[in-house]
């Protein structure tokens, strides 16, 4: 992302928020200036599942150094982040700490003349806008599949409950589908007593038949 783009009229930038004035730095190679500033994120910065939320305070602790081709910006950026765990889908918060290193080329410098507009950032009226640098750095630093905890166990594949609250004893009996019908039948008959009653009737009938058969034998 370039520091500026488009062919329309350009509004003059001022030293505020992400924009830094370099005039007090001068252009003598080696001159340095420290900048500490807290800015507000104008919009969500990051990825779909995890990002610096709009309105969050971003802490900038930077060093501006004049070099032969431009101004080198180095330092640390810190901000709160909000995300959704890619395993258990629960929201969580954390903090993002990252380092940035970016060269802003002087107008008409060799670097400016030999690079495409989107290849390197440039000074505009002695101002540098580091918002695109922070946006790009956050996109690279944040994980594509964020986790609420490094060892998040995710969701139960059978019932969808979070394993973090289900406990280590949470299990499901996996039954071979070939025996599922028989298991259901056994459960239903056990609950109604049908099997026991039927067995008693069968035993009584068998006894009667045996008794009748014995009587006929004696008569002969």
TrEMBL record:
Region named Disordered: 190-220
Pfam family, one: YceD
Biased composition (Basic and acidic residues): 197-206
InterPro entries: YceD
Top-level lineage group: Bacteria
Matches recorded under PANTHER family: LARGE RIBOSOMAL RNA SUBUNIT ACCUMULATION PROTEIN YCED HOMOLOG 1, CHLOROPLASTIC
Protein name per Swiss-Prot or TrEMBL: DUF177 domain-containing protein
């Amino acid at each position: 992302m370039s520091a500026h783009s488009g062919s329309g009229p350009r509004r003059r930038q001022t030293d505020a928020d992400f924009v830094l004035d370099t005039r007090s730095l001068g252009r003598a190679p080696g001159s340095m200036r420290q900048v500490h500033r807290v800015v507000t994120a104008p919009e969500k910065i990051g990825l779909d599942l995890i990002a610096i939320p709009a309105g969050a305070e971003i802490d900038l602790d930077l060093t501006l150094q004049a070099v032969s081709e431009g101004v080198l910006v180095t330092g640390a950026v810190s901000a709160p982040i909000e995300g959704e765990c890619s395993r258990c889908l629960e929201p969580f918060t954390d903090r993002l700490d990252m380092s940035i290193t970016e060269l802003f080329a002087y107008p008409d410098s060799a670097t400016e003349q030999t690079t495409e507009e989107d290849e390197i950032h440039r000074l505009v009226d002695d101002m540098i806008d580091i918002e695109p640098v922070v946006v790009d750095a956050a996109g690279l630093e944040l994980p594509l599949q964020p986790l609420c905890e490094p060892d998040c166990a995710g969701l139960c594949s059978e019932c969808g409950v979070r394993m973090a609250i289900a406990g280590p004893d949470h299990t499901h009996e996996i039954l071979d589908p070939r025996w599922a019908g028989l298991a259901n039948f056994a459960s239903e008959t056990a609950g109604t007593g049908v099997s026991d009653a039927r067995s008693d009737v069968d035993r009584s009938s068998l006894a009667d038949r045996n008794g009748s058969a014995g009587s006929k034998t004696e008569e002969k």
